[in-house]
C-alpha cells in the first residue's frame, strides 16, 4: 500500500542518514563532526610552490614575463621576415629590420640565459628591455636614423660624391660579413659567460658585498677573457654598426662603450680584489680583457 511504502522509505532514509556523509555521524555511541573539505572553504587555496615574487605585482611576475616574451617573439619573427624580403629584392634597407631582429634576440637571450643558469635571479627585468634606461633606447634610435637617412639621401645633392667617401663606411659584402661575425662572436661570448658564471652573474651594478655563493670563476671562457660578458657586448654592438654601415654610430658606440667599460672594470676590480685577494690579482695578470686599453 502507498502509505506502508512511504513509511518504509522514510525508515530506510533515516537509517542511511545515520551512516551517510553529513556534518555529524554517530560512532561508538559518540557524535563526531566531519571536517570541512578545502573546496568548501571561503579562503583561497595556495599551492605550496606559490611565492609572492611571482604574483602579478612581484618582481618576477609571470604575467609580465609572458607578455615580454610574446612581444619579443612577435618582433623577432616579423623583423626577420621583413629583412629577408628586402634583402632578396636587393633593397639596402634590409639592414633596418635586421638590426631590430638582432637586438630583439639579444634581449631574449639575456632572460633565457639568466633563467637557465641563474634562475634565482631571473625576473621581469632580466630581459634588459628598459634596464639600461633611456641611453639604450637613444643608442638604438640613433643607429636606425643614421642608416635610414643615409640610404634615403644617398647620391642626392650635397651628400653625393666626396662626402659619401669621407663619412660613410661602405656597407659592402666584406664589411657586412665582418659585422655579422662580430655579432655572433659577441653574443656567444656573453651567453657563455652567463653560463659559466652561473649564480655569480647578475645584471645589477657593481657588487659591493661578497655574497655567500659568490665565487671567483676562472674556468671556461673566463680562462681566455677577463670580463667576457663586457667583451661580448662591446664587440656585439660594434658588429651591429658594421652591418648597418654606420660611420657616426660606429664611432659613437666605440667611444661610449669604451668609456663605460673602462670605468666599470676599474671600479669593479677594486671590490673583486677585496673579495678574493691575490687569487684575483694573479688572474688579472694572466688574463686580458681583449677590449683595447681596458684593464
Automatic annotation (TrEMBL):
Q: What is its main location?
A: endoplasmic reticulum
Biased-composition ranges, Basic residues, are 1-10
Molecular function (GO) terms for this protein are: protein C-terminal S-isoprenylcysteine carboxyl O-methyltransferase activity
GO:BP terms for this protein? methylation
GO cellular component terms, alphabetically, are: endoplasmic reticulum membrane
Q: Where are the transmembrane segments?
A: 69-88, 94-115, 127-145, 165-185, 215-236, 242-261
Please name the top-level EC class of this enzyme. Answer: transferase
The record ties this protein, via PROSITE patterns, to: SAM_ICMT (PS51564)
Show the segment(s) annotated as Disordered: 1-50
Under Enzyme Commission nomenclature, its number is 2.1.1.100
Q: Where in the cell is it found?
A: Endoplasmic reticulum membrane; Membrane
Spell out the InterPro entries in the cross-references: ICMT_MeTrfase, PPMT_MeTrfase
Catalytic function, reaction form = [protein]-C-terminal S-[(2E,6E)-farnesyl]-L-cysteine + S-adenosyl-L-methionine = [protein]-C-terminal S-[(2E,6E)-farnesyl]-L-cysteine methyl ester + S-adenosyl-L-homocysteine
Give the family from UniProt. Belongs to the class VI-like SAM-binding methyltransferase superfamily. Isoprenylcysteine carboxyl methyltransferase family.
Cross-referenced PANTHER family: PROTEIN-S ISOPRENYLCYSTEINE O-METHYLTRANSFERASE, PROTEIN-S-ISOPRENYLCYSTEINE O-METHYLTRANSFERASE
Question: What is the protein's given name?
Answer: Protein-S-isoprenylcysteine O-methyltransferase
Q: Which organism is it from?
A: Cyphellophora europaea (strain CBS 101466) (Phialophora europaea)
